[in-house]
Specification:
The structure is a homodimer.
Chain A: H1 3-10, H2 20-26, E1 31-35, E2 40-42, E3 50-56, E4 59-65, E5 68-75, E6 79-81, H3 83-88, E7 95-98, E8 102-108, H4 109-118, H5 120-146, H6 149-163, E9 169-171, H7 176-182, H8 187-196, E10 202-205, E11 208-211, H9 214-221
Antiparallel strand pairs in A: 1-8, 2-7, 3-6, 3-8, 4-5, 4-7, 9-11, 10-11
Chain A binds a DNA duplex through residues 148-150, 175-177, 185-192, 194-195, 206.
Chain lengths: 256, 256
DNA sequence: GCAGGCGTTTGATACAAATCAAGCCAAGCA
DNA sequence: TGCTTGGCTTGATTTGTATCAAACGCCTGC
């Protein structure tokens, strides 16, 4: 591994508190690898030998059943992939595919488990990462079970705005068919949901979306801090445990 | 805490490998409490001060939004509740309610976090529990996004059979309206889904379900080890990492 | 420039699920 | 016994979503 890579890895949340010698154990046999867009990194059901850490690019996790498939989440840097499977030393439940050119750190699963055994701080960091991921899926599940597709889209747009510059113009990060699957609908219905949001001041042109009436959009979307992982709840001070928040396409919470 | 309670707690997966002095730290200030059926243990958004360990009874975790609510999972002994929130020291994303009389061990969150810092084996056990929970929700999510309601019911019945005695008669563990919400449908549609499964040999009488044509039911359900957490995949030997499996109403995987 | 391909949009239709409204049934109780 | 209650079922209807089909726009490669 190159020195510049080591520096970047050092900054990952899961390695923040780790002693130097443990860091060496954890990253023993680790290497950074580059993948082109559209690469299948991992198929669901595969045994997992490496922990993947996404340093650059976007990766989609998706699931398949009976000739259907659905995008479960989309990860952006810096995120771990399949940490749960590594911790349990078991098969992956989701497939992973690069959506664009990616740079990924691959760490042998054994090294991760050994480092956890040797350093409680590292094991705690892993726990925090997993706890954040767990809560991410729970939020996602509430989103799917409690809202209809237009409401999900509206909240997605508001979340995009919140993690961006907060202006009234947001850019979609993915192809619409990918976004549709992530939001649990068909591409056709994503189109129609966008059309339905016209009356809330939403205008789409390619991947650029203009939100000209945030109040109306919020009235329809009814964003909720227990589902949508952004922005502190009304008037609270930022800085406490849960106010520091981070979004990865309705993905996971940021472990502290 | 009574000596008999201590013995039971000792057997919990997360305390299996823990040194005696750490066990004492972790359970400092812990106590067992009994709750009647229908008790709200925790409201979503509440700060979480205790880790709950369900020793007896059933607890439902549910989420709310905009006057709707949905059952996210149902836990049976022995399970931890809201471990993720305890690890991150943050607010709960789901409400918890007892479905029947329950016996619950309550451990101060501070004690858990301290014990994790002191003992890497305990921190690893927490990681495994969280990893199992994470994978449980992922399975649940795939179930919801990839299957229609009748398919979900069919798989639920097969899962019940698998964790039971494997006979052709299974007992539903919950009221039908709770089951309906858990499976992501209305009570009315649960009725209709049961009716639709008649042609696969499914007959319902109250909470007793007779499955007289497993082959037909499986043909419709198409159970998948990457969604339905029971039974080893075809012909594999039980005993390896993931074959030892355990179901809690499509809940979580058993941490080893 | 033009042809082809692919992602997207639009419309028509079919299907699935939620909702609304009765009615049923068994348990609890006066 | 008769009454009420709550959970469950059944039917009619509406709403939401998927599917099918066609057309459009855009980019690419020839």
């Amino acid at each position: 591994m190159r020195a510049s890579d080591i520096d970047r890895v050092r900054e990952l949340p899961i390695f923040a508190d780790v002693a130097p010698e443990i860091f060496r154990v954890a990253t023993a046999g680790a290497h950074v690898q580059r993948f082109p867009a559209g690469t299948m990194l991992l198929l669901e059901g595969d045994p997992v030998d490496f922990l993947y850490v996404l340093l650059e690019g976007q990766v989609e996790l998706h699931g398949t059943w009976n000739d259907h498939d659905t995008v479960m989440t989309i990860l952006r840097p810096v995120s771990t992939l399949i940490l749960a499977a590594v911790v349990l030393d078991t098969a992956a439940l989701m497939s992973a595919r690069t959506l664009e050119r990616c740079e990924i750190l691959m760490i042998p699963g054994d090294a991760i488990r050994t480092a956890m055994r040797l350093d409680s701080h590292f094991a705690m960091a892993v726990s925090r990462d997993l706890a954040g991921s767990y809560r991410g899926v729970v939020r996602n599940m509430k989103n799917i079970k409690l809202r209809n597709s237009t409401e999900r889209l509206a909240n997605y747009l508001l979340a995009l705005r919140a993690v961006g510059d907060g202006g009234s113009i947001v850019r979609l990060h993915h192809e619409k068919r990918v976004l549709a699957s992530l939001l649990g609908m068909t591409p056709e219905n994503l189109s129609r949901s966008f059309a339905a949001l016209n009356k809330c001041g939403v205008a789409v042109q390619g991947s650029v979306v203009t939100l000209s009436n945030i109040a109306a959009l919020e009235h329809l979307a009814k964003p909720d801090p227990l589902i949508d992982n952004y922005a502190p709840r009304g008037g609270e001070i930022v800085g406490d445990a849960d106010a520091e928040i981070w979004l990865s396409e309705h993905g996971r919470e940021k472990p502290r």
